[in-house]
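Progress note, project year one: complex with glycinamide ribonucleotide.
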Amino acid sequence: MTGDPVTDAGRFAVLISGRGSNMLSLVNAARAGRIPALPAVVIANVAGAQGLHAARDLGVPTAVVEHQASANRREHDGKVLEVLREHDADLVCLAGYMRLLSPVFIAAYPGRILNIHPSLLPAFPGPDAQRQALEHGVKISGCTVHFVDEQLDHGPVVAQAAVPVKDDDDEDLLSARILEAEHRLYAEVLRRYYLGHLVVSGRRVRIQEPADE
Ligand code: GAR
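Model obtained:
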């Protein structure tokens, strides 16, 4: 499969650091017409990020902006912003992007940066959310899509999906169950975003049903 047609549809960017399964699920959902927007570019901060190959195979433009090459977060984010502008991205989707964004980045895309996190926030922010859930002994965990602000895994929650934590779960089993839910949830949130169904009021985000309009 090669690239997407040039149209005036929405254009989302996906930022990754590794495997990129959420990125792939977003690209595939867009290509299948379930998200009314085009994947503009996939950007990784790690040259060897596995997801880059998959994105290239699907004909999505990719870029690597290695964070080690910059003196500080602000400089690195400036370079990422340049790539986003080159590709005309109107929404930034963090998908396993293991970097905190600087205020400059957030100000450049106000209300237009989303993240997915593998827990029911505000429980278990930060790395190893699935391990934290197991260690805490919760019976239900899941995933959260939220708008990004300057604090880690903190901005307004858009949507959440719950999954059971089973007695014989280890980190891999729980992560796999959550990941399936992540793939469904993130694509659905992007669909609603581009349909103009998200209504943000402070920390509260309502997903407006078409009948509410
Ligand atoms: C996903 O589980 C995502 O929720 C998590 O990293 C994984 C990336 O997988 N993100 C975070 O923990 C962010 N705080 P993927 O590269 O296959 O999409």
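DSSP finds six helices and nine strands in the chain.
The first helix runs from residue 21 to 31.
No further modelling is planned for this target in the current period.
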